[in-house]
Design brief:
36% helix, 233 residues, alpha/beta, 9-stranded mixed β-sheet
Amino acid sequence: MIKADLHVHSCYSPDCCIPLEVIVQRCCRLGLNCLALSDHNTIQGALKLKEIAPFYVIVAEEIMTNTGELMGLFLTEEIPAGLSAEETIIRIKEQGGLVNIPHPFGRWPLDNYKKLTSPEIMEQLDMIEVFNARTPLPNSSRKARELARKYRLPGGAGSDAHTASEIGRCYVEMPEFSGTADFLQSLSRGKINGHKSSPIVHLATTWAKVRKKQSMYHNTVLDPGKTEGRHIC
């Protein structure tokens, strides 16, 4: 069986400071043998993690569209932020990836997610994140499960970890799979385990943003070309 945390961030996200090596150590300690590294608007960290991790790494990206976030899984190319949801979905599917909607009822502003959960978008999805350990809003998981049932889509789950201690807070225990071809079938037979994170973890996200902005400013002042096209880990 596979123990998969299908939503984790690394220091390649602007609001997270977890080094890739720490992610590997944490997963090995917990017995997680599958991870979807889904940094914000980049796959650089996921590609590097895939090279060093002794477990299965799904290259994913949490992409900010102009109406909220979508997630692509099994990606080979990075997808830019700011596109429409429709264009983002096209680009995910063009490279053989799967389309997921993370925390569909768990982030503000909720008006954006009315657009992302419209029938036109939902009919193009491959899966829905039905449990997110960081979602603070009540009933968000129940509403996500109901949405998945309505459209007959498999439900995924992830810690949405932005700190090392959050990794594995929730995960899916599912049969082994070999790639996109049988991932969805395996996921549909999976069992979600875990629990919510404390709301305090969001303070760590805010602190990570502040640290990175300070580091970026400091490095830019000392060497204007030093941080161009790079992530601070």
